[in-house]
Amino acid sequence: MAGSETHYTLPRPSFDEDVKILIVVAPYYRDIADDLIAGAKAEIEAVGAEWELVEVPGALELPTAIRIADQTADFDGYVALGCVIRGETTHYDTVCNDSSRGLSTMGLAGLCIGNGILTVENREQAEVRADPDRMNKGGGAAAAALHLVALARKWKGGALPAGFRPPNA
Ligand SMILES: Nc1c(NC[C@H](O)[C@H](O)[C@H](O)CO)[nH]c(=O)[nH]c1=O
Ligand SMILES: CC(=O)[C@@H](O)COP(=O)(O)O
């Protein structure tokens, strides 16, 4: 029953201020990447946010590209898109694990990143997951980034009353 499972998705966040998301894509499998991009763009546009798109050769470059962007530009969040299909050697594990670890490490450092890197056994699994009309994993990754941006803004600028000291401060 490939691709028919459903799961709960949070309602879309709303934003009072501008949001700019960088989509970083590894078009190692061009058609799969294009579907992931379409899903991500639609999700970002659905909340009125802006996006910019850059490409890197493969999934292993995705975390580095995001790190470079974080150091040199001013995005609110990031969507990493790509596809890793198992081959004959152990390289699959390296590409899957290191790309994921790179994104997670930056996430724990406070960056708002949605992970849309498909890690699959074959093309069919990838096609189902990338298709915006089926599993729409690009849209899901964009939604994740947007939810983190909303969370990061939730307490930002929430001024405490003058002279107020939080407990244990
Ligand atoms: N095998 C896949 C790769 N491999 C390439 C690496 O991501 C990387 O670009 C290379 O090792 C140079 O640093 N990338 C994918 O995105 N998908 C694959 O299936
Ligand atoms: C995901 C991969 O690394 C894969 O494309 C590489 O294939 P192989 O293990 O046959 O070299």
UniProtKB/TrEMBL annotation:
Chain positions recorded as 5-amino-6-(D-ribitylamino)uracil binding sites: 28, 59-61, 83-85, 115
GO biological process, one term: riboflavin biosynthetic process
GO cellular component: cytosol; riboflavin synthase complex
CDD domains documented for this protein: Lumazine_synthase-I
Record-annotated active site: 91 (proton donor)
Reaction(s) this enzyme catalyzes, per UniProt: (2S)-2-hydroxy-3-oxobutyl phosphate + 5-amino-6-(D-ribitylamino)uracil = 6,7-dimethyl-8-(1-D-ribityl)lumazine + phosphate + 2 H2O + H(+)
Annotated EC: 2.5.1.78
Binding site residues for (2S)-2-hydroxy-3-oxobutyl phosphate: 88-89, 129
Key word Cell membrane present: no
Top-level class of the enzyme under EC nomenclature: transferase
Entry superkingdom: Bacteria
Stated family: Belongs to the DMRL synthase family.
Purpose: Catalyzes the formation of 6,7-dimethyl-8-ribityllumazine by condensation of 5-amino-6-(D-ribitylamino)uracil with 3,4-dihydroxy-2-butanone 4-phosphate. This is the penultimate step in the biosynthesis of riboflavin.
Record protein name field: 6,7-dimethyl-8-ribityllumazine synthase
Organism from which the protein derives: Maritimibacter harenae
Organism ancestry: Bacteria, Pseudomonadati, Pseudomonadota, Alphaproteobacteria, Rhodobacterales
Gene: ribH
